[in-house]
Amino acid sequence: MSTFSFINPKLLRLIRYLIIAVLAYFIDMGGYIFLIKLNLEPLVANILVKVLAAIFGFFAHRRFTYLITDNKNIRPHAIRYFSLAL
Known about the structure:
There is one protein chain. This protein is mainly alpha-helical. The chain has helices at residues 9-37, 42-65, 74-85. Helix 1 runs antiparallel to helix 2 (42-65).
Protein backbone atom coordinates (compact mmCIF):
# COMPACT_ATOMS: atom_id res chain seq x y z
CA MET A 1 0.00 0.00 0.00
CA SER A 2 1.32 3.42 -0.98
CA THR A 3 2.05 6.10 1.59
CA PHE A 4 -0.18 8.49 -0.37
CA SER A 5 -3.01 6.03 -1.05
CA PHE A 6 -5.55 8.54 0.29
CA ILE A 7 -4.76 10.92 -2.62
CA ASN A 8 -6.53 10.51 -5.94
CA PRO A 9 -4.05 8.77 -8.34
CA LYS A 10 -4.64 11.38 -11.06
CA LEU A 11 -3.91 14.20 -8.63
CA LEU A 12 -0.78 12.42 -7.44
CA ARG A 13 0.38 12.05 -11.07
CA LEU A 14 -0.25 15.76 -11.66
CA ILE A 15 1.81 16.64 -8.59
CA ARG A 16 4.66 14.40 -9.78
CA TYR A 17 4.42 15.98 -13.25
CA LEU A 18 4.65 19.49 -11.83
CA ILE A 19 7.64 18.58 -9.65
CA ILE A 20 9.54 17.20 -12.66
CA ALA A 21 8.53 20.22 -14.78
CA VAL A 22 9.86 22.62 -12.14
CA LEU A 23 13.12 20.66 -11.87
CA ALA A 24 13.51 20.72 -15.66
CA TYR A 25 12.90 24.48 -15.59
CA PHE A 26 15.64 24.93 -12.98
CA ILE A 27 18.02 22.85 -15.10
CA ASP A 28 17.15 25.02 -18.08
CA MET A 29 17.38 28.44 -16.44
CA GLY A 30 20.05 27.61 -13.88
CA GLY A 31 22.21 25.92 -16.48
CA TYR A 32 21.80 28.84 -18.84
CA ILE A 33 22.84 31.37 -16.19
CA PHE A 34 25.77 29.16 -15.18
CA LEU A 35 27.00 28.78 -18.77
CA ILE A 36 26.59 32.50 -19.46
CA LYS A 37 28.72 33.25 -16.38
CA LEU A 38 31.35 30.95 -17.91
CA ASN A 39 31.31 33.28 -20.96
CA LEU A 40 29.68 30.77 -23.27
CA GLU A 41 27.86 32.21 -26.27
CA PRO A 42 24.17 32.71 -25.28
CA LEU A 43 22.78 30.74 -28.24
CA VAL A 44 25.09 27.79 -27.56
CA ALA A 45 24.30 27.90 -23.84
CA ASN A 46 20.57 27.97 -24.58
CA ILE A 47 20.74 25.01 -26.95
CA LEU A 48 22.83 22.95 -24.52
CA VAL A 49 20.56 23.48 -21.55
CA LYS A 50 17.41 22.89 -23.60
CA VAL A 51 18.81 19.53 -24.71
CA LEU A 52 19.84 18.63 -21.15
CA ALA A 53 16.47 19.68 -19.71
CA ALA A 54 14.62 17.68 -22.39
CA ILE A 55 16.69 14.55 -21.69
CA PHE A 56 16.11 14.95 -17.96
CA GLY A 57 12.39 15.54 -18.55
CA PHE A 58 12.03 12.45 -20.71
CA PHE A 59 13.62 10.05 -18.25
CA ALA A 60 12.21 11.67 -15.10
CA HIS A 61 8.65 11.82 -16.43
CA ARG A 62 8.94 8.27 -17.66
CA ARG A 63 10.15 6.97 -14.32
CA PHE A 64 8.52 9.21 -11.72
CA THR A 65 5.47 10.79 -13.35
CA TYR A 66 4.18 7.79 -15.27
CA LEU A 67 5.95 5.08 -13.22
CA ILE A 68 7.33 3.27 -16.28
CA THR A 69 10.20 1.12 -15.04
CA ASP A 70 10.95 -1.05 -18.06
CA ASN A 71 12.65 -0.04 -21.29
CA LYS A 72 10.04 -1.73 -23.45
CA ASN A 73 8.86 0.63 -26.22
CA ILE A 74 11.29 3.35 -25.13
CA ARG A 75 12.32 4.20 -28.70
CA PRO A 76 8.88 5.21 -30.06
CA HIS A 77 8.16 7.02 -26.81
CA ALA A 78 11.46 8.93 -27.08
CA ILE A 79 10.78 9.84 -30.71
CA ARG A 80 7.37 11.26 -29.83
CA TYR A 81 8.67 13.09 -26.77
CA PHE A 82 11.65 14.72 -28.48
CA SER A 83 9.59 15.57 -31.56
CA LEU A 84 7.29 17.57 -29.30
CA ALA A 85 10.27 19.05 -27.46
CA LEU A 86 11.61 20.44 -30.71
